[in-house]
Write a structure and sequence with these properties.
Elements: H1 2-10, E1 25-30, E2 39-43, E3 54-58, E4 69-71, E5 77-80, E6 91-99, E7 105-117, E8 125-126, E9 130-136, E10 146-147, E11 150-151, E12 164-171, E13 180-182, E14 188-191, H2 193-201, E15 207-214, E16 224-234, E17 244-247, E18 256-260, E19 269-275, E20 280-282, E21 287-290, E22 301-309, E23 320-327, E24 343-346, E25 354-357, E26 374-379, E27 391-393, E28 399-402, E29 412-420, E30 430-440, E31 448-449, E32 457-460, E33 468-475, E34 486-492, E35 499-503, E36 509-514, E37 525-534, E38 548-556, E39 568-574, E40 582-585, E41 596-600, E42 608-610, E43 616-619, E44 631-640, E45 647-657, E46 670-676, E47 684-687, H3 693-696, E48 703-706, H4 710-715, E49 716-722, E50 725-730, E51 739-748, E52 751-762, E53 770-773, H5 783-807, E54 822-825
The chain binds 2-acetamido-2-deoxy-beta-D-glucopyranose (3 copies).
One 2-acetamido-2-deoxy-beta-D-glucopyranose binds at residues 685, 698, 721-725.
Length: 829
């Protein structure tokens, strides 16, 4: 019998591996073994040769607590000495060593795990014999409202402890025998659909349920136990809730209790959701809280959903909804729109023109007084004395329009509007909004000249074209530079185009210039009308009289200055010239020009004087101090008798000559004549000065005298013939035959001239004609030549006499007399 049992047990050691390092040995032992003991479990892999050692078996921790186990030293088998209880100890960990007596380990340790194999020797047990459970009406079918608890001591995970629950009996069995259903594996008790329907109709119960728990899973065999569940049915308190109104900014301790829900069934867990997410919470008792202050402007309403759930998170019933309404408080002031760019309004816009509309927002509840806004214009204040405001504001709509008071271009106005909520009532919140307004310019002003009439302007006739006549200024009251651009034109008075205008478009200054030559004869004056216009299209009234200006230009006649017949004058005068002598006459170049008035500018010596009208220059006083060869320059001025401002001047240069021989350049030389010497009864007629037109006709009377030269006084005689002529004769019997220049002083009243009379003195024949030797060159015989001729003649006579006395007797054939080739001379020039 034993060997057979051993063989059987050998099967229990599949994990025993022989070797130097022995692996753990695993042994299964059935629980509550009912056979004989000791029971051989397995043969340990002891070494065969080492027999001196002693086999030691120890427990888990090394102590010798081997308990019911032992090793048979002879066979090397592990054995158990009594029946094992898995519920007492399910596993044993042993180790086997081979040791000497003094404790030296020869082999091992060999670990051995002994597992007690379960036997279904335990009965399942409910945690309570009687359970009391509350069941609320309205609990959904299938949702467990109670979980049975039962235990089984057998090995977990095996069929021995695999429990199943069943309802054995329901009492009462009305209105249905199957009011409940029990989930067999979990023991979850729920209403059946029938039961749910019946409970909704009437409050039944209570019910007593006899329930069973059984092990071995779904097998028919197994241990079982029973218990009683007393189910009492309670009224459904899970009812819809009224909306909750909560004031915003509520100053209370938080969390603040706001509502209560209650699920009257047992074992409930409340769950809360807020839509949108909000500061709400629910506690175990179903009290709802708000956990902090609410802000209506952030969220005005919340929808809370509350669920009553079992331990598995399943809803017992429908979700309860709770509306939370946040009540407004006037905690928001009106908010002005951001100040934008200035609004442009053209000037002269009519009253009522829309300027702007204030869009003020108040975040408080719309439609409530908290957001009821009224507007009031704070600024600009109405001007004193003005007939109204410049701007009007509608107190309810916030629309700004133009008022009656006028505005001016270029004005920048900041409108200030007080905006108050609560309809303007006391306690309302307010803000001040600002609107910038700019009044823009329109071209409503015509340009105008600063003066409408200017003094007549004089322009000399010879003014050069291009000359600036005058500069006119015009202004434009508009502000916009484009509206200030001006255009100028000569509208009238300049048909010929004699004048022109020059301007910079944006300056307002226009220059009137002469373009052509002026002519006094053609037009002694010009009346020009200059007009200015706006370049841009003007708006509003027509330009006034200021748009034109009249410029009167008077043409000044230009008379050329007088001109003299010479640029400068010269005269030579002997220093002995007596006072009163006429020097010369200064005349205008054009005898037809207007009469002149002459004067001497710087006759510092006072030697000269000039006749104012005739221009005759005379010696004023004897020329004492003047040296021959000196020059004396005097500036002569000639003024126009009609226009004293017109004048000219010329230098008069006087050359002083030696007293006797000073010629008078104005006197024409007297033609030369011839006289015979020795003296015959003849003379030459000398005429007066021929250069003087007044006197040329012999209007004398002149007095004639020989010049102061002593030789002339000796050699010549002068006898007056009549008022205009005199008779010059030789003073001596013999005067050397040659050309003589005889100075003669001619005087007429105070005037004195000296004239030179050229006279040729020559030998004459019987008829009184000058004789001259042929062969002599032209010209008069001189003293030397005459002496030469005389000596030559005497020598010739001497030679003849010698020849006569020498050859008197030889040859008396020739008769020599005076030269035969002498011819009478004509009057020399
Ligand atoms: C204008 O006058 C100047 C000088 O008097 C003269 O030289 C010029 O030719 C004149 N021009 C005309 C267009 O008559
Ligand atoms: C008179 O004026 C002219 C021109 O200025 C000058 O040449 C001359 O020497 C002056 N004569 C006297 C005497 O000062
Ligand atoms: C003066 O005498 C001259 C010469 O005999 C003569 O030619 C002249 O006509 C006379 N004049 C008068 C005014 O008698």
């Amino acid at each position: 019998m034993v060997p057979a049992r051993l063989c059987l047990l050998c099967l229990f050691i599949p994990q025993a591996f022989p070797g130097a390092q022995p692996a753990e040995v695993y042994v299964d032992v059935p629980e509550n073994y009912g056979g004989n003991f000791p029971l051989y479990l397995t043969k340990l892999p002891l070494p065969r040769k080492e027999t001196e050692g002693q086999i030691v078996l120890s427990g888990d921790s090394g102590v010798a607590a081997e308990g019911p186990f032992a090793v048979d030293p002879e066979s090397g088998f592990l054995l158990v000495t009594r029946a094992l209880d898995r519920e007492e100890q399910a596993e044993y960990q042993l180790q086997v060593t081979l040791e000497t007596e003094d404790g030296r380990v020869l082999w091992g340790p060999q670990h051995v795990l002994v597992h007690v194999k379960d036997e279904n020797d335990q009965v399942p047990r409910f945690s309570q014999a009687i359970y009391k459970v509350q069941l609320s009406q309205g609990t959904r079918p299938g949702v467990p409202f109670f979980f049975l608890e039962a235990s089984d001591g057998d090995a977990p995970g095996t069929a021995n402890s695999d429990l199943r629950f069943h309802i054995l009996n329901q009492a009462p069995s009305q209105p249905s025998a199957d009011m409940f259903q029990l989930e067999p594996q979990l023991g979850a008790l729920a209403l059946s659909p029938e039961g749910s329907t019946s409970l909704d109709q009437a409050l039944e119960g209570p019910y007593q349920l006899l329930v069973q728990v059984k092990d071995m899973g779904d097998q028919a065999s197994g241990h079982q136990a029973t218990a009683t569940i007393d189910v009492s049915i309670v009224e459904n308190t899970w009812v819809p809730l009224d909306p909750v109104h909560l004031a915003e900014n509520l100053q209370v301790p938080y969390p603040h209790h706001v509502a209560q829900v209650h699920w009257s069934g047992g074992d409930v867990h409340y769950h809360l959701e807020s839509q949108p997410l909000g500061p709400f919470d629910v506690d175990k008792e179903g009290k709802l809280y708000v956990t902090r202050e609410l802000d209506r402007e952030a969220q005005a309403e919340y929808l809370l959903r509350v669920r009553a759930q079992n331990t598995r998170g399943e809803d017992y019933a429908e979700t309860l909804e709770l509306h939370v309404v946040v009540m407004d408080e006037n905690d928001n002031m009106p908010v002005c729109p951001p100040r934008g760019p200035a609004i442009s309004i053209p000037e002269l816009s009519p009253p009522g023109t829309k300027v702007a509309k204030l869009l003020v927002e108040d975040a408080d509840a719309p439609g409530s007084p908290n957001s009821h806004i009224v507007y009031r214009l704070l600024s600009p204040e109405p001007e004193e004395g003005a007939e109204g405001r410049a701007f009007e504001l509608d107190s309810t709509s916030g629309s700004v329009t133009l008022g009656a008071a006028p505005l001016q271009a270029g004005q920048n106005i900041l409108l200030q509007v007080l905006v108050t909520d609560l309809g303007g009532a006391e306690g309302g919140l307010s803000s001040t909004c600002e609107i910038a307004v700019t009044i823009t310019d329109i071209n409503d002003h015509a340009p105008e000249f600063t003066t409408s009439q200017i003094e007549p302007l004089s322009l000399p006739e010879d003014t050069e074209p291009g000359t600036l006549v005058t500069t006119l200024m015009a202004t434009d009251a508009d502000l916009e530079p484009a509206f200030r651009l001006m255009d100028f034109a000569i509208e009238a008075g300049d048909v010929e185009g004699t004048f022109g205008l020059d301007w910079e478009p944006d300056s307002g200054r226009v220059q009137l210039r002469l373009l052509k030559n002026l002519s006094y004869e053609a037009a002694p004056s010009h009346k020009l009308v200059v007009v200015v216009r706006s370049v841009a299209e003007p708006v509003g009234p027509d330009p006034g009289p200021g748009a034109t200006v009249t410029v009167t230009v008077l043409v000044e006649r230009v008379v050329p200055p007088p001109q003299l017949d010479q640029e400068s004058y010269e005269a030579s005068v002997p220093v002995s010239t007596p006072a009163g002598s006429l020097l010369l006459t200064i005349r205008p170049s054009d005898p037809m020009s207007s009469p002149l008035r002459f004067s001497l500018v710087n006759d510092s010596e006072g030697w000269l004087c000039i006749e104012e009208v005739s221009g005759e220059v005379h010696i004023a006083r004897p020329l004492q101090g003047a040296q021959p060869g000196d020059m004396y320059t005097v500036l002569v001025e000639a003024q126009d008798a009609d226009e004293p401002t017109l004048s000219t001047s010329a230098n008069l240069v006087i050359h002083f000559l030696k007293a006797p021989s000073a010629p008078t350049p104005t006197l024409a030389p007297v033609p030369s004549r011839h006289l015979c010497t020795p003296r015959q009864d003849r003379g030459v007629v000398v005429g007066g000065p021929r250069g003087d037109p007044d006197l040329a006709g012999g209007h004398g009377p002149y007095s004639f005298a020989l010049g102061p030269n002593p030789t002339a006084q000796r050699d010549w005689r002068l006898r007056a013939l009549n008022g205009s002529h005199a008779y010059l004769t030789l003073g001596l019997h013999w005067v050397e035959p040659r050309e003589h220049v005889v100075p003669i002083v001619v005087s007429h009243h105070d005037l004195v001239w000296q004239i030179q009379v050229r006279v040729i003195v020559c030998r004459c024949n019987v008829e009184g004609q000058c004789m001259r030797k042929v062969g002599r060159m032209k010209g008069m015989p001189t003293k030397l030549s005459a002496v030469g001729i005389l000596v030559g003649t005497l020598i010739a006579i001497g030679i003849f006499l010698i020849l006569i006395f020498t050859h008197l007797t030889l040859a008396r054939k020739k008769d020599l007399d005076q030269p035969v080739d002498s011819v009478p001379l004509k009057a020399a020039v």
